[in-house]
Amino acid sequence: MNIKVAQRGENVMKQDELGQPVTRNEDANHELSIRVRDLDLWYGSFQALKSINMDLYQKNVTALIGPSGCGKSTFLRCLNRMNDLIPSVSLTGLIEMDGRDVNESKMDEVALRRRVGMVFQKPNPFPKSIYDNIVYAPRMHDLVSRKADQDELVEKALRDAGLWEEVKDKLQQPGTSLSGGQQQRLCIARAIAVQPDVILMDEPTSALDPISTATIEDLMDKLKQQFTIITVTHNMQQAARVADYTAFFHLGEVVEYNDTKTMFSNPYTKKAEDYITGRYG
Ligand SMILES: Nc1ncnc2c1ncn2[C@@H]1O[C@H](COP(=O)(O)OP(=O)(O)OP(=O)(O)O)[C@@H](O)[C@H]1O
């Protein structure tokens, strides 16, 4: 395995010249959430992910950046096995949470997706009331049964998602009656209602206006106190604002993975530098 441990402020030559990825692993300051080793993924005969090695840290925001088609969403979907739904996908390598490979045959997918929730690009509330959007999954997982507990859970999830004040008087209205930004916060409330460890976000603000985007970014900053957040974004400023760590993907590989400050102020690889400075996209 070819892992370069990047140290903050370390002065190294541009790694492209050495032909090696720059990968941050085993950061002593943070607890590990997910360990990814030698991950390769194919759609049929097309290899979309190549030898990915990453340690993702608890209670941090990690941004996945890179040009269109470089494998960011594919990687994100590996973390809660959403790619299982695509018949042509095959993969090798290790994705470990709490010492267990998420791809091992005994791993229960439903239980995994409870621990690793997901928020998509387009807000997708269920065609149900605001209240039922929140309690649907907790009921399915037998986390709550008494009405009073459900009420409490709905209020807490909506408060944590910064939506309670706006919807507390209309909980029985359809989730789809809310604005786009509110719907996305409802989806975040739905994701956190089952108390996951990790929340995956796939371009969560790309369909939203600037004010709703800022609200979600503030929310990510608050939520990382409780959850590990891994987000795909095309918006460099957003990655710089919200992420503690940033991974730069290119043609299915992680070319550089480092703390966000270093990535944006002193990227080690020429490819990452060119992307961040807008030389290609
Ligand atoms: N279901 C699929 N079947 C076949 N190929 C796929 C499938 N989904 C993605 N791919 C291919 O895998 C590669 C990675 O796609 P992916 O969507 O992960 O990239 P991305 O970096 O998230 O792109 P974008 O930023 O445009 O969303 C692309 O070449 C894409 O065409």
From TrEMBL:
NCBIfam families noted in UniProt: 3a0107s01c2 (TIGR00972)
InterPro entries xref list: AAA+_ATPase, ABC_transporter-like_ATP-bd, ABC_transporter-like_CS, P-loop_NTPase, PstB-like
CDD domains in the record: ABC_PstB_phosphate_transporter (cd03260)
One MF annotation (Gene Ontology) recorded for this entry: phosphate transmembrane transporter activity
Key words of the record: ATP-binding, Nucleotide-binding, Phosphate transport, Transport
GO terms (BP aspect): phosphate ion transmembrane transport
A GO CC term assigned to this protein in UniProt: membrane
Organism expressing this protein natively: Halomonas cupida
Top-level division of the source organism's lineage: Bacteria
Domain ABC transporter: from-to ranges: 34-276
Name recorded for this polypeptide: Phosphate ABC transporter ATP-binding protein, PhoT family (TC 3.A.1.7.1)
Pfam families: ABC_tran
Keyword Transport: yes
